[in-house]
Amino acid sequence: MAELLVIRHGQASFGAENYDVLSDLGRQQARAAGEWLRGMGWAPDRVVTGTLNRQRDTATEMGFDPEREEHAGLNEYDFSNLLNARFKDGIPDLVQGDRKVHFRTLRETVFAWQRDEIENPYETWDAFCTRVEAARAFSVDTDAKRVLVISSGGVIGQITAASLHAPAQHMMNLNLQIKNAAMTRFMFSGSLFSLNEFNATPHYATPDGAKLMSYS
User: Fold this and answer.
1) Of the candidates 88, 122, 156, which is a domain's last residue?
2) 98-106, long-range: CB < 8 A, 24+ apart
3) pLDDT band per the 50, 70, 90 thresholds, residue 8
4) pLDDT band of 112, cuts 50, 70, 90
5) Cβ 44 vs Cβ 33: under 8 Å
6) Final residue of a structural domain among 67, 91, 122
7) Is the dihedral of CA 38, 42, 48, 54 positive or negative?
8) What is the distance of C-alpha 83 from the center of its chain?
9) Residue 137's pLDDT band (boundaries 50, 70, 90)?
10) Distance CA 91, CA 85 (A)
11) What pLDDT does residue 94 have?
């Protein structure tokens, strides 16, 4: 059996004009994850990221960048676009500025997206699922025994939910739990693909490491 280790990118820049930039904390999180893996003697035979800067830069900060491949199917869904499609008269200020309201609205919006209740989204829910599955299949189509993937919370939630044959809504329940730079591990061989470990953060399991933990 081979391993697919999927890591969520480090903390990005919530509330900034350009969200797709790792914060200083995000860079520390990525370095901590890379250091922990090397300390355990774990090095990838293959590295795949999405095309987003926060995913690429997480791989770089981890120290696993040199022969990185990319697959756009690992990119996060575009929540801003979904919000604009849902709130046609303008996104409420609280959704933009209050973290609790933001994530409650994120959950409600994704559920509506899954039910095909958002008119003219940039991407349908089915299209999202199809591209995520294509990225997963691409990542495990290899002779490598240790594959490292850097992606985002929604994609990781969907891969995990699909591996468990869970209802669509479960993807979002998983998505909102995933910590920055957390590790989700799958085992694969041929057509076999199964969850081994979800949302693990052993690199935060010290008093100093615990200070690095974040969810967004």
Assistant:
1) 122
2) 99/14, 99/216, 103/176, 103/216, 106/79, 106/176
3) very high
4) very high
5) no
6) 122
7) negative
8) 19
9) very high
10) 10
11) 61
Q: Give the closest residue to 33 by CA, choosing from 54, 3, 64.
A: 64
pLDDT at 28 over 70: yes
Those residues with Cβ within 8 angstroms of residue 203's Cβ, 6 or more apart along the chain or in another chain: 32, 33, 35, 36, 181, 209, 212
Residue 118: closest CA among 79, 162, 152: 79
Place of tokens 């480090």: 10
> What does the alpha-carbon distance between residue 111 and residue 122 come to, in Å, rounded to a whole number?
16
User: How far is the C-alpha of 30 from the C-alpha of 180, rounded, in Å?
Assistant: 9
Listed residue (19, 8, 13) closest to 180, CA to CA: 8
User: CB of 10 within 8 A of CB of 212?
Assistant: no
Q: Find the domain containing 99 and state its range.
A: 78-122
Are 61 and 146 contained in the same domain?
A: yes
| Secondary structure E strands in 140-212 | 146-151, 183-189, 192-200
Residue 216 covered by a domain = no
